[in-house]
Structures are given as C-alpha cells and as structure tokens.
Amino acid sequence: MAQQRLSQLKQIANYENWAANCIQKNWRCFQQKNWFQKLRHSTTDFQAHCRGFLVRNQFSSLLNNKTKAQSLLSSVIPIDSQSSHSDEAFASKGSSQVWLKIFFLHIFSIKKI
C-alpha cells in the first residue's frame, strides 16, 4: 500500500514538473517572440529614418547643383525668351543654345548612383 502511494506521488510530481516545464517553455517562447518583434520594428524604423535623412540630403544637394547649373548657364549663354516659342527658332543659332541649356539642366537633374 505504501509503495502504491509512493508511485502515485512520483507520478503526480512528474506531472507537476512537466506542467511547470511546459509553462516555463511557453513563457520563454512568448518573451523571445515579443523581443524579436520589437527589435525588428525598431530596426525598420531606424532604417526608414536613415533613408529619409539621406534622401533629403541628396535632394537638397540636387537642388543646389541645379541652381548652380542654371546660374552658370544663364551667365554663359544668354537666351531670348521670344526665339524659343516660334518655329523659326529651330533654324536660328539661339535655338541650339536653348537645347544646350535644357540638356545641361537635364544632366544635373539626373540622380547619380
């Protein structure tokens, strides 16, 4: 009778130990999943902020380059606004200057990799 009771107590202890281990395992798993999700979210936020900062800097430098190119070209190549609107402008010497200016402005507006 005592041995039966002892074997029952061992089974109960094993079951309780198994239950405690199961609870601990699931709790640790839950904590690690939450930690990983927070890490991933914070990493994504950090990347987004860095990319935004870099894009704003590139955009401002692009605008600076474009304004420098416009001022440089306007000082070197004066353009008549009247000659660029007519069909006769394509045959004149001024139209090549217009297209040259447009070409340079287009080059400075291209994103350099």
How would you portray this structure in words?
It is a single chain. With 113 residues, the chain is mainly alpha-helical. It has a domain at 1-55. The protein is 81% helix and 0% strand. The chain is built from two helices and no strands. Helix 1 runs antiparallel to helix 2 (93-109). It is rod-shaped. Residues 83-91 have low confidence and may be disordered.
What is the topology?
Elements: H1 2-76, H2 93-109
Which key terms come to mind for this protein?
single chain, 2 helices, 113 residues, mainly alpha
Strand content: under 5%
Q: Which spans of ≥5 residues are poorly predicted at pLDDT below 50? A: 83-91
Assembly category: single chain
Give me the Rg, rounded: 37 Å
* pLDDT averaged residue by residue: 77
Overall spatial form: rod-shaped
Short recap of the structure:
This protein is 81% helix and 0% strand. The protein is mostly helical and 113 residues long.
